[in-house]
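Quick one, tokens below:
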């Protein structure tokens, strides 16, 4: 896959769906996979845009301020006149693994895409979406409109993110049909395997997914057990690292962002897995989903041009 970075401008990457406050034991943190993904993509060298919706309330205004503080654009965020900004109660177990309680009937359930968002989608190199933001028909229709506006060659990354009861077999199948890259974790693979009748061990199941849905890449993250990545029939795996974990919130999204940039840069599976682990390992050692990216990681995929 050819990158649009060399020698041109950074790739435009969209994260579309839920944006919210994760209400952690240590306090509230900006959350939602699309925003986390966009933050990490931009921290690693892309031009990123979050496409979501907040309420006309103090929490919504704080999200917009926080995004600006992170250096992200806010023109992909619309404001709902009546529904509240989304929140999620997050509890952590002894290993730092999160459990989520996601509140319903919030602003991002009425996701909207003004003309500016569709223009950005039309020049994008990658877009990432999941199942949660499709729980409401309004948001689901909007997400499909934005996906349709992306160039045919763009990466359309389905990061499944199964949460509570906000998904179905039909939704998973429809989303896989819209995608050309699939990312899931080792808790989700058995569920997907049962839904789709996949057989054999993990590598065989990833190969079946790639073949059945004509996917460019399939990534399986396995927490402390590492990850496996399949690209064009080539498979790479890496074990997990010994870490002092603060929490794992946002680590998977940072892995997905690194995957996207690695694919756009034309890297092979071994190179991408190595870099994705370096980024995700760092995020696991920090509190919250969007810690500052250290200099040693900022150019791990895409070297910055002079003046950037």
């Amino acid at each position: 896959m050819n990158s649009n970075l060399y020698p041109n401008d950074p790739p435009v990457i969209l994260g579309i769906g839920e944006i919210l406050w994760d209400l952690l034991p240590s306090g509230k943190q900006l959350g939602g996979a699309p925003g986390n993904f966009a933050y990490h993509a931009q921290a690693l060298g892309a031009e990123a845009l979050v496409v979501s919706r907040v309420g006309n309330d103090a929490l919504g205004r704080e999200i917009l301020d926080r995004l600006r503080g992170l250096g992200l654009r806010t023109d992909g965020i619309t404001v709902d006149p009546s529904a509240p900004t989304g929140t999620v109660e997050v509890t952590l177990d002894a290993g730092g693994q999160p459990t989520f309680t996601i509140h319903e009937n919030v602003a991002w359930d009425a996701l909207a895409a003004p003309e500016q968002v569709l223009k950005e989608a039309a020049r994008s190199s990658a877009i990432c979406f999941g199942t949660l933001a499709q729980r409401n028909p309004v948001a689901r229709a909007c997400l499909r409109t934005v996906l349709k506006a992306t160039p045919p060659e763009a990466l359309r990354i389905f990061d499944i993110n199964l949460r509570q009861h906000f998904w179905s077999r039909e939704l998973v199948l429809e989303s896989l049909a819209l995608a050309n890259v699939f990312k899931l974790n080792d808790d989700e693979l058995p569920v997907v395997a049962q839904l789709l009748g996949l057989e054999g061990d993990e590598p065989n199941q990833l190969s079946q997914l790639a073949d059945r849905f004509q996917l460019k890449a399939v990534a399986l993250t396995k927490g402390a057990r590492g990850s496996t990545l399949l690209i064009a029939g080539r498979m790479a795996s890496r074990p997990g690292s010994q870490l002092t974990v603060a929490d794992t919130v946002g680590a998977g999204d940072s892995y997905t962002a690194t995957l996207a940039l690695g694919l756009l840069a034309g890297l092979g599976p071994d190179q991408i897995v190595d870099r994705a682990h370096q980024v995700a390992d760092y995020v696991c050692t920090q509190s919250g989903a969007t810690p500052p990216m250290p200099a040693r990681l900022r150019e791990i995929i895409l070297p910055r041009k002079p003046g950037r």
